[in-house]
Design brief:
- This protein is an alpha/beta fold.
- The chain has 2 domains: 102 residues, Helicase, Ruva Protein, domain 3 (Orthogonal Bundle), CATH 1.10.8; 196 residues, Vaccinia Virus protein VP39 (Rossmann fold, 3-Layer(aba) Sandwich).
- Helices cover 39% and strands 17% of the residues.
- The strands form 2 sheets. A 7-stranded mixed β-sheet has the order 5-4-3-6-7-9-8, sandwiched between helices.
- Belongs to the protein N5-glutamine methyltransferase family. PrmC subfamily.
- It catalyses: L-glutaminyl-[peptide chain release factor] + S-adenosyl-L-methionine = N(5)-methyl-L-glutaminyl-[peptide chain release factor] + S-adenosyl-L-homocysteine + H(+).
- It comes from Schlesneria paludicola.
- Keywords: Methyltransferase, S-adenosyl-L-methionine, Transferase.
Length: 322
């Protein structure tokens, strides 16, 4: 039998709860005969990983584990302690739908509704950008300067899921935070995450464009932002997972990718305390231009580009003069 045809036959058996795994009559899930290749956790993980690899997943085994744990409503570690467990019809049906959607490159985080960031679990929806390890560098650096302050006031612009603001609030129990986003749907997700992690009482969420919704005269010790910074020409070359599913509003940085970063850097000194700190995430290719933007204002005491955990230029760190 051709490989493609065989793959389809196996998929049909996996997806059809009335089909026996080996093409024979349905057998008892409690006691499958020795010659029946039952749909155990191990077999489903192996098959799913192979299937997703053929459809472009960069982490097919991890995807398979996360999706199956979600379908079974268990932790990933429990999959390994129950390798020989035969899946119920209900779990097989749900897993089939999840695998089909992932094969169309829908992000795993949207399929399961959450993503880990800075060792915290965050709710995510298609209304927000999926948190990524790249951004953890910004969070760590912001903590580094804020932890020496008695009661730091911190501003998070373009907050999205709230992963930056909530992570900072968890690590800095004396901090008061303000988070801004232009999307009311994103703010609803950020609010859920703040409540989930017990920091809602210290996090003020404001709807608006960058500094616009802030009270007049309000200044901050730290300003952190992961703004839209993908240049318009690069949008169509993004991975399907990102281009087709993540919110364009959170990605599109205009012609050169700096449409949001430019006013952010220019206005930040007016909103920072004297000696306050600015942290802005960027793409590695933008590092020279972003550093130049900060230096040309003449309003920063210092400015440098920090590298992320992968060694790539990722974050502007600048200290205000005023």
């Amino acid at each position: 039998m051709p490989i493609v045809a065989a793959h389809r036959r196996i998929w049909s058996a996996f997806a059809d709860p009335t089909a026996a795994p080996s093409g024979i009559d349905r057998v008892s899930q409690d006691a499958p005969p020795p010659n029946a290749e039952a749909w155990t956790i191990q077999r489903v993980l192996e098959w799913t990983a192979q299937h997703l690899a053929k459809h472009g997943s960069e982490s097919p085994r991890l995807d398979a584990e996360i999706l199956l744990a979600h379908a079974k409503k268990c932790r990933r570690i429990q999959l390994y302690t129950n390798y020989d467990e035969v899946l119920s019809d209900a779990v097989r049906g749900q897993m089939r739908e999840l695998v089909q959607r992932r094969a169309r490159r829908e992000p795993v985080a949207y399929l399961v509704g959450h993503r880990e960031f800075f060792s915290l679990d965050f709710r995510v929806t298609p209304d927000v950008l999926i948190p990524r390890p790249d951004t953890e560098t910004l969070v760590m650096e912001a903590i580094g300067v804020a932890k020496s302050l008695a009661a730091p006031a911190i501003l998070d612009l373009c907050t999205g899921s709230g992963c930056i603001a909530v992570s900072l609030a968890k690590q800095l129990p004396m901090a008061a935070l303000t988070a801004v986003d232009v999307s009311p749907a994103a703010l609803a997700v950020a609010r859920d995450n703040a409540e989930k992690h017990g920091v809602a009482d210290r996090l003020s969420l404001l709807e608006g464009d960058l500094f616009q919704p802030l009270p007049a005269g309000k200044r901050f010790d730290v300003l952190a932002s992961n703004p839209p910074y993908v240049s318009r020409g690069d949008l169509e070359s993004l991975e399907d997972d990102v281009r087709k599913y993540e919110p364009r509003l959170a990605l599109d940085g205009g012609q050169d990718g700096l449409d949001v970063i430019r006013p952010l850097i220019g206005e930040a000194p007016n909103r920072l305390q004297p000696g306050g700190w600015l942290f802005v995430e960027l793409s590695p290719e933008q590092a020279p231009a972003v550093l130049q933007l900060a230096e040309q204002t003449g309003r920063y005491r210092s400015a440098e580009i920090l590298k992320d955990l992968a060694g790539k230029p990722r974050v502007l760190k600048a200290q205000s003069r005023e």
